Amino acid sequence: MKIVDDAPSALTALDRPNSYIGRSVPRPNLARLTQGRGQYVSDVTLPRMAHVAFVRSPHAHARIVSITADAAKKSPGVVAVVTGAELAKVMTPWVGVLTHLKGLKSAPQAPIAVEFACWQGEAVCAVVARTRAEAEDACELVEVSYQELPAVTDAETALDPQTPVIHAALGDNLCFERKLDVGAVDKAFAESDAVVETTFVTGRHTGVTNEPRAIVADWNPGEQRLTVYQGTQAPHMMQDLFAKHLGLASDQVRILTKDVGGSFGIKVHTYADEMATVALSKLLKRPVKFVADRIESFVTDIHARDHRVKAKIGVMKDGTITAFEIDDLTGIGPYSVYPRTSGIEANQVVNLTGGPYNCPNYRAQARVVFQNKNVMCQYRAVGHPIAVAVTEGLVELAAAKIGMDPLEIRRRNMIADDAYPAQSASGLKFEKLSHHEAMAHLDSMMDYAGLRADQKKLRDTGVYRGIGFASFIEVTNPSAAFYGVGGARITSQDGATVKLDAQGAITIHSGVTEQGQGAEAVLAQCVASSFGVSMDKVRVVTGDTDNVPYGGGTWASRAAGIGGEAAWQAGKALRGNVLAVAGAMLQAKPEDLDIRNSVVVDKVSGTERLTLAELARVAYFRPDTLPPGFQAELMATRHYVPRAWPFAFTNGIQASYLEVDTDTGFVKLIDHWCIEDCGTIINPQLVNEQIRGGVVQGIGAALFEQCLYDERGQMLNGNMADYLVPMAVEMPDIQCGHVVSPTADSELGAKGAGEAGTAGAPACIMNAINDALRPLGAQPLTDMPFTPGKILRALGRV
Amino acid sequence: MKPAPFAYKKARSLDEAIALLGEHKDARLLAGGQSLIATLNMRLSAPTLLIDINGIGGLDRIEEKNGAIEIGALVRHAQAERSDMIAKRVPLIARAMPHIGHAAIRNRGTLGGSIAFADPAAELPACLMALDGEVEASGPRGKRTIKSQDFFTGLFETALGPQEMLTAIRIPLATADTRVGFAELARRHGDYAIVGLAASARSDGKGLKDLRLSFFGAGDTPSRARKAEIVLESGDVDGAVAQLDLDPHDDVQATAAVKKHLAGVLLRRVAKQLMEPRA
Amino acid sequence: MSGLALDVTMTVNGETVVERVEPRQTLVDFLRDNLGLTGSHVGCEHGVCGACTVRVDGEIVRGCLMLAVQCEDAKVETIEGLSDSGEVADLQLAFAERNALQCGFCTPGMITAAQELLAKGGVPSRDEIREHISGNYCRCTGYHAIVDAVEAVAQEREKARGGAGK
């Protein structure tokens, strides 16, 4: 493990005494959660707080002709009934576009629909009442007259001239289009020994966070300040947006985020009903609470990954991959979601396809089209699951076609571990990846040869097991290249303030946020290590825009790599400050001292000289005893942003071992492995648990989850009985292993790990199913989720 | 999703419950509530009165009476799961129990409620039909018995009158020659089945007699596959599968064709169970 | 409060509680809104996710599928009560040590459900543990660490009872 010091200092080695880096320290914030004493936004109550429920369009596309609210307004407990037109006086609409996605267009979206309802479930009227139940009662009394309009529900025909255009001002239903043509693709295919061409479909699915979206907005007219309790991943971003659309200064807005019941990207976006709740609080001058119930969650939480990708791979007899080509069509909702846009997912599919491999010939086309369905946007791992399914699916189909082992074809094509820095055909810059070492590690961890032998033995008895792989790259630690360059006010830097209190304990204030992945623990480990205290002397404050440095929050797996680095540096800086005080008190040179386990010690001998508690007492209460002119500074703030690389790419490889019941089409998952390289590992247990949770979300996409729509744009399975999320019995144990390739762009060298599991799991499940069924001559399955019906049809049993 | 407002009355006796049903045409009976309250929460149903029957005494017994097992309407699934009498005398229901929902659901849900709710994808209505069981209904004119083949009349519809309450189910005792078979296919443990089969028969060790194949998830009500029964009784498993007389619908989980195929697979598996000598 | 409201008396975590409630109010909403016991969570309101799992008269139930008015004279226990009495202390510790919780939203229901399984005694297999918690949705952990935690506690308790453990 190599650490590059870009700023020579005696205080920077990661292997300090009292270091928590690389240790599986239990998270300090778990006691309140296991006691049921967490503070989720859905738990928040404020004096005079009212509840909002929304009347939602039953039609996928309709003109709102009239809204009659007289009966609703008289309903018991009702405070107000507010239409989109009325709310428009309080809040301006928004448009989800960014300039770096050239040509991306979208129509303005209002917090409550004004003239048109554009998806089944879009809010058309708000009812505010003393209780949620009373608000729902009154919603039933609101009379909305609709003129139903034809709905655009087929992405394949969305751009046909005879298909109605959803937003006339845009001219067509095209949100965004991208083309890429690198190398000599046609020549490469023509010269290939074998070409595999197929179509991958990843079914539209959604996050289903256990705690639904929740927000409490509190406009205080006396203070002219808006306080918003929101389960958001990006508090400062929301502070900026609420201020912008309400005509406030951002320092008039405070966002508070404590415990969040699951997020996975679902809660990093701007939702019309949440914006409406905030506007309603300003309008009504009292706190207003909105908690999406599960039924409305299914039709309003962002959906994701609705892609049809025609794909092609060329390969030589010796296994060399010659070219990749994709044509990606994705049908989003009627609006590009704000402010990150709904073009990013397809853009990532274009960027990431072919990623692990040395293949200079690549052509891609992606089109993002509007539909009258729920909106779609970034969800854990963003475009990776699609790009990895396409890439790894093609690679294993190619291997099968030429009769080569699937690990062998990867061995012959993956970028060599010593060939970095490198660049993909799509222009992605890689600092250092470890595809080969990871694959070797996987091979031995799963006993690949042993499993192949088992598979063969069982096949002879009519039992069909499959082994599938997926190697992948994963975007983490994004710089401004992701959003900032496109004009979004989304920060890629982050900050941490650390202070020594009057008792000698440490508080960290950080701009990243916690949704359960362990950001608080990671921050505490970083500071405890770089400063020199034990973990129990560290408290972490996040999720309060009044009280933390301006930060980006948690998304794209940035909390450990970026938030952690800022915290690490702040801890170092505070140590320098504290040792200056210690030197003054002890008449010693600060550079001869260190802090270990809350004690100032002689660096070389380790002799204890002064406790932090004593130092703090003197600095705070007896500065008269310090040398003349000396000013003690017991706080330090540092910021960090990645500068050398647009993204810190990580890599990994997963494998699935499963059995297909060829009579029923049911799949039994026997085992699963993931080898991940996320650079310096701050907390191995937390990394493994992120991988496991991510893998299971990916399994959900491969086998169970799909948002089903009929041709009229009605969602057919928007409840927990019909939309199938993975539950405990069907999931396998998941073994994790690691390779460590630190990034030199930070002192910690940590990259992100939160999304890798989800990126690779769907692909390796698919490959394992096809591996199982190949001897039966089944048509390869490429249309997720792989339901029993689809498997039976592929086998010709139905 | 909060329910629409309703009034609530806890019935102290069967007579009181029946009287309340008579007075309030828009009332629903509350037993386990595991299906009812979910539908109320989603406002799929908006009765003006809930009649809580959980306090009515004497409806939670499992007893042997006149060659049958009588299971009171308020016997909870969990209670039936723990019952030695059911394990010994109604083994088919014992086999079905672990598939019904999850532990928390089984602690509250009742067998009577499940039968009366008549979800076509539920296990117990099919078991009742497979066992040639009957329902005891109580109403203003007293008690009557409804045979299982007459009880399930349509999608979530039963032969219970608007003022009647299911008070017990009765199932003939298993004997030494009773054979049972049970299998279901659900995407996740505890889900409603995509398709399932509850079967019972008598066997003298050579062939099957009085075979009753009761499929669930394959129609609006539990479905007896009578043609397949005759063919299977003759010992021809392949023929029974080929002539399986079922007419399922498409739904969000599976197409009719897939359900029909899976029903055939279950038939083979259950046929094997039925041929096993009784333990 | 409408004319439909009724008085209900029950004990919650050992404390007698008398409240006036609407019949339509579910037990979990009553616990959260009337009593401020927000440890039991609302995830779906149709009995599938298990986040609302509480104990009524000693058995785990879905708090979203019971009405507060049904709990007249009942003994209700929530995660706060199970926690403060120490009944689930070993489960809480095991969950924390194995990171068997991330966001924590499913955790009260998961611990309450697991406690019912473990109270039966013996050491359930991993498959049996998975089957028992099959009605508790977790989106964060993927269930592996939860099974580890419950298994570890089962073995510890078996040892403490003087059994051989596995």
Largest interface: pair, residues per side: A-C, 56 and 60 residues
At the first level of CATH, the class of the largest domain in chain A is Alpha Beta
Evaluate the radius of gyration of chain C. Answer: 17 Å
User: What gross morphology of chain C would you assign?
Assistant: elongated
What fold name goes in the CATH topology slot of the largest domain in chain A? Aldehyde Oxidoreductase, domain 4
Tell me what portion of residues of chain A adopts beta-strand conformation: 15-25%
How many domains of chain A?
3
Number of domains of chain C: 2
Outline the low-pLDDT stretches of chain C. Answer: none
Low-confidence stretches of chain A: 1-13
Count the beta strands of chain C: 5
Structural class of chain C: alpha+beta
The Cα radius of gyration of chain A reads 28 Å
Largest sheet of chain C: 5 strands, mixed
Helical/strand content category of chain A: alpha+beta
CATH topology call of the largest domain in chain C: Ubiquitin-like (UB roll)
Nutshell version of this structure?
The complex is a heterotrimer of chains A (798), B (279) and C (166). Chain B is α+β, with helices and mostly antiparallel strands. Helix content of chain B is 33%, strand content 27%.
